[in-house]
Amino acid sequence: MYIPKYFEVTDRKIIEQFIRENSFATIISSGNEFPTATHIPIELEVNEKGETVLWGHISKANSQWKLFESNPNVLVIFLSRFIITFLLPGMPIPMRLPGII
Description:
4 strands, alpha+beta, globular
């Protein structure tokens, strides 16, 4: 994705803080014919190897989990609360994505 230098954030602490504060994300995988996407809560954690990883849960009823075995590379998109508020301006805050805002 193209990001103009003006908007580019390279400070890892700022990126990690953003993920922690905006943990509802869209995870996109390469499907057989089309990309597959699921909206899920994702947490930023440190695994047993000391690596910073994204951690979430997809139901076995959702076939997207099978795609991770053949292609573990995914795109994860995090939306800020500002963007959600901007996209849904007419909705009262409690009505916008319960538990997120």
